Amino acid sequence: MKINSHIHILSPLVHFFYPHNCIGCGSDVIENENFLCHECINNLPHTGFALHVNNPVEKMFWGRIAIAAGMSEFFFSKTSIIQNLIHELKYKGNKDAGLYLGNLIGTSLANSNRFLNIDMLVPLPLFAKKEFRRGYNQAEVLCEGIAQVINKPLLTKNVIRVVHTETQTKKGRIQRWENVEKSFSVKDPIALQGKHILLVDDVITTGATMEACGAEILKINGTKLSIAALAFATR
Ligand SMILES: [Zn+2]
User: Fold this and answer.
1) pLDDT digits (tens, 9 = 90+) for 158-189
2) What residues does the ion ligand 1 have nearby, CB within 5 Å?
C-alpha cells in the first residue's frame, strides 16, 4: 500500500479550491505545489556561472569592487519564464515563488566549490518605505530559499538603504553611480567583521546597486564579498 495514496484522491479537490497554472506558459498540466510545468522547468535559462571563474557577472565588477566569486542563476530576458517568476515575487506577493527560485540558486551554490567558505547571506536592502509597501524584501525571500539549501545564516536589517535615489532608467552609468553611491549604510559593522558575505539580489543589470552596497560592506575590516543574483540582464 502506498502511503501517499490519499494525495491522489485529494488532488482534484485541491486543484478546484486552489486552481493554478504554470507561471511560465499558463498550462494547467502541472503538479500540485509546482510553479512551472515540466516543459518550462526544462527551458529555464540557467547560466551555469556558479562553476566558472571569470564568468560575466565577475567580469562586470572588475575594476569596480573586489569580489571573491559572483554568479547569476539565470539569464534575464523580458519574455522569459524568469520574467514571469520575478513578477510573481515582486508584484504579486508570491513568496513561495521566491523560495523556489532561492532553492535553485542554493543548489547551484552547493554544487560549486567556489562558494564553500561563505559565512552569511545578506539580502540587498530595499528602502524601508518600499519594503513596507511590498510587505517584504524580495532579495530576503531569495536568501531564505538559498539558506534552505546551503544552511548559512541570514543577516537582515543590518545593511540598510538610506537615501532615496531618483528613478534610474534614463541615466548613464556615472550619474547612476552618483545616485546610489551614498545610499547604503551598515548599522552594526562588528557583526560583519572578518566575515565572507554573500550579497544577494534579484536582477543584476548595470551592477551599480550591488557595487554601491558591496563597497560599503568592503569598508569593514576583514570582510570578503561574493555576489549572487537570480538573473543577469545582458544589454
Ligand atoms: Zn509551462
Assistant:
1) 999 986 555 555 566 666 556 666 789 999 99
2) 22, 24-25, 27, 37, 40
The predicted-structure confidence for 40-71, as pLDDT tens digits, reads as follows: 999 999 999 999 999 999 999 999 999 999 99
Tell me, in angstroms, the distance from the centre of ligand 1 to residue 107's CA: 21
Predicted structure pTM score? 0.85
Ligand 1 centre and the CA of 35: distance in Å?
Answer: 8
43 CA distance to ligand 1 centroid (A)? Answer: 9
3-state secondary structure the chain: CCCCHHHHHHHHHHHHHCCCCCCCCCCCCCCCCCCCCHHHHHCCCECCHHHCCCCHHHHHCCCCCCCCCEEEEEECCCCCHHHHHHHHHHHCCCHHHHHHHHHHHHHHHHCCCCCCCCCEEEECCCCHHHHHHHCCCHHHHHHHHHHHHHCCCECCCCEEECCCCCCCCCCCHHHHHHHHHCCEEECCHHHCCCCEEEEEEEEECCCHHHHHHHHHHHCCCCCEEEEEEEEECCC
> What is the distance in A from the centroid of ligand 1 to the CA of 186?
41
